[in-house]
Amino acid sequence: MLKNLKLSLLKTVQDTELLSVEYRSSRSTVFDYKAVFLAIIIALSLVMIEYIGKSPGYLNFISFLQTLGLGEFGKTLKNALEVSPKSQINQLIYWVSIVFSFYFVLPIIVIKFIFKEKLGDYGLKIGNAFKDYRIYLFMLVVMIPLVLYFSTTASFQERYPFYHLKLNEKLYPYFFVWQILYFFQFIGVEFFFRGFIVHGFKKQFGVYSILIMMIPYCMIHFGKPMPETIAAIFAGLVLGMLSLKSNSIWLGVAIHYSVAITMDLAALWQKGYFN
User: Fold this and answer.
1) What is the CA radius of gyration of the chain?
2) Environment class of residue 159 by beta-carbon count within 10 Å: exposed (0-12), middle (13-18) or buried (19+)?
3) Is the peptide bond before 173 cis (omega within 30 degrees of 0)?
């Protein structure tokens, strides 16, 4: 199995590098407008998520609504996020909406209407998505003990789950709502990093597009527990290679979400919720 995997990954690297060489040799100009535009969209998306997606970044969005003459809508949104009894889940809905908009919707628009390329070429193919399921199972076997270990730390328990259950609050409905939101957030994350960036840059930079993706992917984990941020470096590399190999992000979504829900449940367990 390991030998076959090694050969398969080597073929992925060779094929990607060949694609890059052919792309560069076929270009009539040195300047690559697509690469420049892609980099700007990536940076813009990261900025918008940081400054209007994260709390209290919604205040920036509300101010923007006011400049557009939508002050009443901004006031309603502010009340929903701050005053409403459902403010916690409302804040998470808002956050996931911003993340999904800039990690998924905006790149889709760029690919379809500006680049005029197929979405399947950016990792949305399902055909070979779960061909390497053994790698998925191996990663889970490795990650679950680590999650259980780090779930004993105070920093882990303070951060997870993102939806903080109140005293005697049941999992249904809001914790379940949060898990659905969480799943869509991971679709956005995987598509943006392992789809839009990796496949967007693979013609220009070959397999090194994975390294380009890994840098901002690590940086979005700043503020989280340090072991998780360090793990993001290696997870980004592995998931990036899997996306190149299968031309699909869906195995990455499955891995990412499986680990995330394990983290949430482990945190609740350590806090004594299931006792």
Assistant:
1) 20
2) middle
3) yes
In the beta sheet, which residues pair with residue 124? 248
For 189-192, the CB contacts below 8 A with 24+ separation are 189/99, 189/103, 189/256, 190/123, 190/239, 190/243, 190/249, 190/250, 190/252, 190/253, 190/256, 191/103, 191/104, 191/107, 191/122, 191/123, 191/124, 191/249, 192/42, 192/45, 192/102, 192/103, 192/104, 192/107
Q: What is the pLDDT of residues 12-60, one digit of tens each?
A: 989 999 989 888 888 767 789 999 999 999 999 999 999 999 888 999 9
DSSP 224: B
104, 187 contact by CB (below 8 A):
yes
Q: Which residue ranges of the chain lie beneath pLDDT 70?
A: 1-3, 5, 28
- Rounded (5°) CA angle 213-216-48: 120
The DSSP secondary structure of 96-157, one letter per residue, reads HHHHHIIIIIHHHHIIIIII---GGGGTB--TTTTTTHHHHHHHHHHHHHHHHHHTTSHHHH
Three-class DSSP category at 229: helix
Coil, strand or helix at 196? helix
Task: State the pTM of this model.
Answer: 0.93
Residue 248 pairs in a beta bridge with: 124
